[in-house]
Every structure is written in structure tokens, then in C-alpha cells.
Specification:
It is a single chain. This protein has twelve helices and ten strands. By secondary structure, the chain is an alpha/beta fold. Strands 1-2-3-4-5-6-7-8-9-10 form a ten-stranded mixed beta sheet. Bound molecules: pyridoxal-5'-phosphate (PLP) and iron/sulfur cluster (SF4). The site of pyridoxal-5'-phosphate has 9 residues, from strand 2 and strand 3. The site of iron/sulfur cluster has 10 residues, from loops.
Length: 353
């Protein structure tokens, strides 16, 4: 049985990757995902927003459901439709517009698939799409149309991907991605990592996740058992995904601190989003807070041109102006690399002024 299911087929968790809830001890993070808000009317009630926005939100949510943990909603301002956190999760009629240039697979993941669930675009590192489930549905998500249901659905179906990694000695890093890998329970993730550890040429284990931001209690002892300097011979690197300083409260700082004390290198990636973080001030505050809680700003991503997200796009020349201003007021390590993904390139492509 699924620990939680999502209301839309657009992104369906690759269950049964999660064992039956009855077999597992109760855990507050799973509870936080199970009780996440999925109904636009409830979101409006919680935040005292006008009910008039519900019909459009419901229509947009038919394609890609609303999904937001209550702890994240609690960081939003009451009654403010322009709240930068709300904008990331509220389905809007704008998503239904067909905008030229915005497509279902803008980064050509389809062409990068080596085995079911295994993508390689860049040399020396591969990406495992572990699940379609996430802790939140980001309206701008570039994988919102990804065919998760075609990927592996149970741990034994990972074998072809693991064999392919074992057969290629040029690969020294595995990236657990998704969806969000940390929506999967440790009872599944730990054995996967123990298998990866057996591959002698692997050196690093990277996780891309929003859980430490969305549901910070996910950074629990059973996670650190396999994802820490002492818990695995692979060097653990965690790339979180924060877009705004209001996401980084004290509970998030504590989660980052737990990871850091466990010897995990922490990086952040941000997507440049209209109405969320498209000012010098917003990006400056975000970088300062990240550094304060021990997270290095890694990438600022130009929006991938995925169908349904056109209203979030900031033109590149505007992004370049923001980065130039940041460079003048922040230490070099606090200025993220401004990049975009161009299908077929050998790395993310830096944007320069
Ligand atoms: C972005 C991405 C990576 C990671 O790239 P880095 O520049 O190393 O952070 C790896 N594989 C795929 C398929 C990616 O899209
Ligand atoms: S957490 Fe990542 S994969 Fe999931 S919806 Fe957000 S951007 Fe997409």
C-alpha cells in the first residue's frame, strides 16, 4: 500500500517502492507527507485567500495536483496572494496556456536514459530517478510531465541500472534524484546505497532533495545511518533546493546543522522565478541565510521552458543584471553560478554578462 498517493496521474509515485505503512514505526516526516494539503479550497481556508481563485486552481490542478506540507504553508503570509512561497505551489489558470517554446520535456531527459530510471548527460556522473513522489509540487517543475510510471517500481527493478553503473569505471558519482529520493523510506534507500557502495569505482553519493526544506524532520537518525561520513564510504553531498529566505526557518537550519555535523557537504540550487525571487534583495537575503546555515549557494537556474510554467520566466538579460548586482555586494562564495540547461551540452551552461 502506498504511504501516500497523489491525486493526479501526471506525477505518480513509483510505488510500491515504499513498504506497507503497518510494517514501519510511526514517523513524523511520513505523517507530514500523508497530511499534506491537496485541495485548493483547503489551502484558501488556511491562508484566508478569496474563494474565487478555487475554480481556476482546481482546473490547473487536474494536470498536476496541488501538494504542499502544512509546515511549509505555515511559513506563508496570511491573506497574501503574492506570497513568494504560495506562488511556488498554487495552481493558476496561467498554467493552462499553450505558450510557444514551452514543451513537455525541455531538457531532453528522454534521450539521456541509459536504463529504466538511469540518466546520463555528463561524464563521470549518473542520475537515478528513484521515484516520482515529491514533498511538494513545484508549479515550475521541469519534470512535471516526466513518464515516471515507465521507470523501476520496486527495488529489484534497479538491477539493470546498478549493473550499468558497475560496468562503467568512468562513473565515480551517483546522484539520487526524482521526484524526491527522500520521500522513499530508509528501509528501501539504505539497501540501495549498500549495493552502490560495492561498486569500487564509485566515490561520491549525491542527493538532490527538497525534504530538508519542506519537512526538516526527514533528517532523522535512520537517514544519517546511511547518509553521513561515518555511515557510508561514499562522500555524501546533499543539494537542497530553496528559492526564498522565508523557507529557511530555524527548524530548517537545525536539519542542515544535523547534516553538516554528520560530515555532509551542503549545496543549494535555486530556480529564478518571477514573483518569487526576481529581485536583488530577495536573492541577496537568500544567499546570506544559506551561508549562515552552512549551505553554499551552488546554482541559480534559468527556468527550464516546461509547458505550464511560462509565467515564471525571467528573461536572461534580467537574470544577468541580478547576478551582476549580487556579485558587487556578496562574497564570491555566496554568489551562485547562473546556469541553464541546454540539451546535448556536456554540462550545465553558464550564463555570463
Ligand atoms: C544537472 C544534472 C547533473 C548534475 O550536474 P552538476 O553540474 O554536476 O551539478 C547530472 N546529471 C543530470 C542528468 C543532470 O541533469
Ligand atoms: S521537488 Fe523537484 S522534482 Fe519535485 S516538483 Fe519540486 S522541482 Fe519538481
Amino acid at each position: 500500500m502506498a504511504l501516500f498517493t497523489k491525486p493526479t496521474p501526471a506525477v505518480s509515485p513509483n510505488l510500491p517502492l515504499l513498504p506497507d505503512a503497518a510494517e514501519l514505526p510511526p514517523s513524523s516526516w511520513r505523517q507530514a507527507l500523508r497530511t499534506a494539503v491537496r485541495d485548493p479550497a483547503e489551502l484558501c481556508r488556511l491562508l484566508e485567500l478569496p474563494a474565487t481563485i478555487v475554480p481556476a486552481a482546481r482546473r490547473a490542478a487536474e494536470k498536476f495536483g496541488l501538494f504542499a506540507p502544512r509546515g511549509y504553508i505555515a511559513r506563508m503570509r496570511i491573506g497574501d496572494l503574492n506570497d513568494p512561497l504560495l506562488r511556488q505551489i498554487l495552481p493558476l489558470a496561467d498554467e493552462l496556456l499553450d505558450v510557444p517554446g514551452f514543451t513537455e520535456d525541455p531538457v531532453d531527459d528522454g534521450a539521456a536514459q541509459l536504463e529504466p530510471g538511469l540518466l546520463q548527460k555528463y561524464c563521470t556522473r549518473v542520475l537515478l530517478v528513484t521515484t516520482g513522489a515529491c514533498a511538494v509540487h513545484c508549479r515550475y517543475c521541469f519534470r512535471r510531465h516526466f513518464p515516471y510510471s515507465e521507470g523501476p517500481k520496486s527495488p529489484d527493478q534497479w538491477q539493470p541500472a546498478i549493473d550499468a553503473i558497475a560496468a562503467d569505471a568512468t562513473i565515480d558519482e551517483v546522484i539520487l534524484s526524482g521526484g524526491d529520493p527522500w520521500t522513499i523510506v530508509d528501509e528501501i534507500l539504505e539497501p540501495l546505497v549498500r549495493q552502490l557502495e560495492q561498486i569500487p569505482h564509485l566515490r561520491r553519493l549525491r542527493v538532490h532533495t527538497r525534504l530538508p526544506i519542506m519537512v526538516p524532520e526527514r533528517v532523522c537518525d535512520s537517514l544519517l545511518r546511511w547518509f553521513s561520513a561515518d555511515g557510508t564510504r561514499l562522500t555524501p553531498i546533499c543539494v537542497v533546493h530553496a528559492n526564498h529566505v522565508a523557507e529557511l526557518g530555524d527548524d530548517v537550519a537545525d536539519a542542515c546543522n544535523r547534516l553538516r555535523r554528520a560530515g555532509v557537504t551542503l549545496l543549494n540550487q535555486t530556480v529564478l522565478l518571477r514573483g518569487v525571487n526576481d529581485t536583488v534583495e530577495a536573492l541577496d537575503e537568500l544567499s546570506r541565510r544559506l551561508v549562515e546555515i552552512g549551505v553554499i549557494p551552488y546554482y541559480l537556474h534559468q527556468l527550464d521552458r516546461v509547458a505550464g510554467a511560462a509565467h515564471f520566466e525571467i528573461p536572461e538579460h534580467e537574470g544577468l543584471r541580478l547576478i551582476a548586482a549580487l556579485r558587487e555586494q556578496l562574497p564570491g562564495y555566496a554568489v551562485p553560478r547562473y546556469v541553464r540547461e541546454i540539451p546535448g551540452e556536456k554540462s550545465k551552461s553558464p550564463l555570463y554578462d
